[in-house]
Protein 1
Amino acid sequence: GAVVSQHPSWVICKSGTSVKIECRSLDFQATTMFWYRQFPKQSLMLMATSNEGSKATYEQGVEKDKFLINHASLTLSTLTVTSAHPEDSSFYICSAGTSGNNEQFFGPGTRLTVL
Amino acid sequence: SQQGEEDPQALSIQEGENATMNCSYKTSINNLQWYRQNSGRGLVHLILIRSNEREKHSGRLRVTLDTSKKSSSLLITASRAADTASYFCALRSGGYQKVTFGTGTKLQVIP
């Protein structure tokens, strides 16, 4: 149980285009989903927290207009990188948790490469 | 939010040896978790230790937590080549569900 999937697993796009990444909790309802970014050889940095049906809370320094997060259902959250640039190339990882649960369940990650 | 500092940043050992990595933090926590990440892959949850616990075991893993020193250690005994990965501590503080990750230790186990 407690499986989280991400789609796509990798994506290559041209500079200026937008890319959508999906995060799904497959066998449980996720009241909260988190989006992280990991640059090569670095740790995971939290970008934003999203609760189902409400606006996401962004961490300091993360542009909410550039990284659009939608958490429309208890099993799906999406991250859209708008007008992507090469510096947005990174490994994006989502995680999902339920209310009152100490543990987060992580997706396998999406590698974004912007040319 | 705080980030854990891990040391060493990198560790290379022979198969069969024990590996110890440490995580230090600055403010109080609810719990501390350890994760493993193979290169370019997602995270695997290893173990969670609560702030009122001092030690936990899981197979070849042993985690300690010293809240007075604000530090935790992860010990992997009898290491195997398959243990080669990056290991991260993750801190949960306050009433928030979110966690913040440490800087990570890259472990290489040489067969």
Protein 2
Amino acid sequence: AQSVTQLDSQVPVFEEAPVELRCNYSSSVSVYLFWYVQYPNQGLQLLLKYLSGSTLVESINGFEAEFNKSQTSFHLRKPSVHISDTAEYFCAVSPSGSARQLTFGSGTQLTVLP
Amino acid sequence: DAGVTQSPTHLIKTRGQQVTLRCSPKSGHDTVSWYQQALGQGPQFIFQYYEEEERQRGNFPDRFSGHQFPNYSSELNVNALLLGDSALYLCASGNWGVFGPQHFGDGTRLSIL
């Protein structure tokens, strides 16, 4: 079984400041890791994923996350946030070889302030 | 190319009633998964359907059941509704044989009075 802990339920940050959203996981098997974003009254959109290879993965809108196996972490970072980044962010894991059952963290609400 | 579509968008029921939620997967997808997202929580996996059979199930009681049709669309049924069943129900689709990210619909908001 897998579990995911998102250490911060709410993260307020000023526009153009850097941000890090923390995610730690627990699993007895190797895993795939994901970050999803959820805007109000919408479903989840995949932001980025780690399957294998380079431990640093990037999204098209400037977010990046680094897989740290020894610390069982997959923190999400962005060097400069925009108002439009305000949303709920979810970290998720699945057993490697299959994304058929995702286990999600409880989410982090990122609020970007002007 | 339509993504994952869910209906209805909102639903209000009373305790003890039964409800059916519907999902059409993204074009080309053959696998449907259902998740329950309570207010302020992350989504929790209910079950997954492929080839009209339930393939995996999360920790949900038998009151939660589902079905997949030959056109890959799916229904989630919940019997004997409880107040605690109030949540956003999300459907996600993908391909069984090929790894890839799951695509989520916008969900059905179920409120139990």
